[in-house]
Design a protein that fits this description.
By secondary structure, the chain is α+β, with helices and mostly antiparallel strands. It is built from 6 helices and 3 strands; from the N terminus they run αββαααβαα. A hairpin with a 5-residue loop joins strand 1 and strand 2.
Length: 101
């Protein structure tokens, strides 16, 4: 792998939507992804994680949240609200529980 491929991990949703996430963000924000990327798994070699049970819209929101979390983790003032559509809140809860983020 070249440096660009090592820097990002490709996430593939159940409906084959692809998202690229900074590898450091994935490892810092999700215990599940950390285990996949640092363990003896295919994902650690391929830099591709497939989520057959998470749809693209939900996975996109999870990725947005991970960057939001990293951006605000050292905030000393008020943290801006992270917008969540109530219609997808339950699916986001299930995904975040699975990803442990």
């Amino acid at each position: 792998m070249n440096d660009d491929e090592d820097h990002y991990v490709k996430l593939v949703s159940a409906d084959d939507k692809e998202f690229f996430l900074d590898r450091k963000v994935a490892i810092a924000c999700s215990e599940t992804m950390k285990a996949m990327l640092e363990g003896n798994f295919r994902e650690s070699e391929d830099n591709i994680i497939r989520f057959p049970d998470i749809g693209g819209t939900i996975l996109e929101k999870v990725v947005q949240y991970m960057y939001y979390k990293m951006r605000n983790q050292k905030a000393t003032g008020p943290i801006p609200e992270f917008p969540i559509d109530p219609a997808c809140a339950l699916e986001l809860l299930v995904a975040s529980n699975y990803l442990n983020c």
